Amino acid sequence: EAGVVQSPRYKIIEKKQPVAFWCNPISGHNTLYWYLQNLGQGPELLIRYENEEAVDDSQLPKDRFSAERLKGVDSTLKIQPAELGDSAVYLCASSYGQGDEQYFGPGTRLTVT
Amino acid sequence: KQEVTQIPAALSVPEGENLVLNCSFTDSAIYNLQWFRQDPGKGLTSLLLIQSSQREQTSGRLNASLDKSSGRSTLYIAASQPGDSATYLCAVFTGGGNKLTFGTGTQLKVEL
Fold this sequence. Notes:
The complex is a heterodimer of chains A (about 110) and B (about 110). Helices cover about 0% and strands about 50% of the residues of chain A. Chain A is mainly beta. In chain A, the strands form two sheets. In chain A, strands 2, 4, 5, 6, 9, 10 and 11 form a seven-stranded mixed sheet that branches. With about 110 residues, chain B is an all-beta fold. Chain B has no helices and eleven strands. Chain B has strands at about 5, 10-15, 20-25, 30-40, 45-50, 55-60, 60-65, 70-75, 85-95, 100, 105-110. In chain B, strands 2, 4, 5, 9, 10 and 11 form a six-stranded mixed sheet that branches. The mean pLDDT of chain B is about 95. At the A-B interface, strand 5 and strand 10 of A face strand 4, strand 5, strand 9 and strand 10 of B.
């Protein structure tokens, strides 16, 4: 069974540029999560989807961050414009349902210069 | 607000030693608790998930225990190996499984 797939693995951009991350969850997983992980810290939730509905986006900085999961499968997280402080690893995870075991992708390491 | 603490932050042991990693949380009304492993530059790998009604879970050389009333979980690694070197993260589900809160991790190094 394929795991959670994320792309790109690495991205370097200049500040004020836009960037997008893509995630394909494990087949059959209805719940999808985007996390942000800073160096030496645990992941912090940005947004959680149940199928195509964003049910928890309270930690998503909505002035510059947006996300979508149009058909309830793949998801895209976008930042526009990027700031220096956005440099971090962006992790995608999925589970069958809320509260179930979460499986993580390899992450996208973003560097904003 | 749930807070998760892991002690120690870093640990170095010789190969073959049995070791214990600690995780504590402030809100005992948890749904479940999950232990993860993270290798440098990689994503998280799920090791064990303990439901709130369970006391422990075992997988191979790993054993995780949960004491909800005291807000603690321990991850026991038997006969450690150099391949066990990684950062171990504890995460608790609260709010009926709506939110997963992570600790900052314990960085483990197992030396030959």
